[in-house]
Every structure is written in structure tokens, then in C-alpha cells.
Design brief:
The chain contains six helices and four strands. The chain is α+β, with helices and mostly antiparallel strands and 163 residues long. α1 packs across α3.
Amino acid sequence: MKEKIKLDETDFKILYELLEDSSQSLTELSKKLNIAKSTIHSRIKKLERTEVIEKYSIKMNMELLNYPLIAYVMLNYDQHKTDYDQEEVAQKIAKMAMVEEVHLIAGEWDILIKVRAKGVEALGEFSIKKLKKVEGIGKSLTYVVLRKIKGENSKPYVIDAKR
């Protein structure tokens, strides 16, 4: 486990702004936050070095790309159906197209995956022709998202907690 880093109000202001728009220049951030560009630059470098900022990315509109359907699939790992361990099975699933997230979980189910599909038919085909053929998968339960209320790229609660 990585060592926790102490962040101050300035760090959180910078993180908030970068979450809103990571393409902002140092000049724009400096004007918006009323903080010297050199300070912002050094703070961002510290946040990157300490891996508070892991990477910069874009958020695509998956509906416009014709992948509007989100589903969560709960899977049971069945050790009698494979020589692979649970994590190896999850790694195989993670490499599949349409799979956005894979988590090993505790409880009644062993693996949770988030899937993106063009529609219910494509989701069914993925489940039947690809997912169920993975060695080590037992039962599955699929939940189709009707409407997303809050999702990835949402401002993390730690930003508000510090304000």
C-alpha cells in the first residue's frame, strides 16, 4: 500500500480544476485560481510524482459512438471448470472487447464486470458467445442500466470533503 500524501487547499483547488478540464493551460489555471503559474506547475508535478494524478485522459460520449447500453455482470468463479485461479480468469475477461471494468469482489459473487454494448442483442451475444465460454465462469447475473445518475469522471468526494 502506498504512503498517503498530505494535500492542502491549493492542491485540491488544482485537482478540482483539472477534473473539470485537464486541457487547461497553466496560464488559465493561474488566472482562475489566482495562483502563480510556477506554483501551479510545481504542485502539478508533485501530484504526478506522488501518483495522486495517475494519468490524463478524455471522456468519450459512448452514446454518440453507438455504445449506449451499460450492464453490470456478476460472475461466480468455478474452480472445477478450470486450472486458472480467479484472478487469471478475471484477467482473461479484462482483455475482452466491450468490457470496461473488472473487479474481484467479496460476497455471493466473485467477479463484477462493467460492459458497454450497442444494445440488448449485442449484450446477449457477448454473454452467450464470449463470456460464458471463459473457463472458470460458473453462474452469472446481468443488470442492465436504465439511466446513469452518477458515473466515472464525476468529481470524487474527497475534493468536496476538503472544502
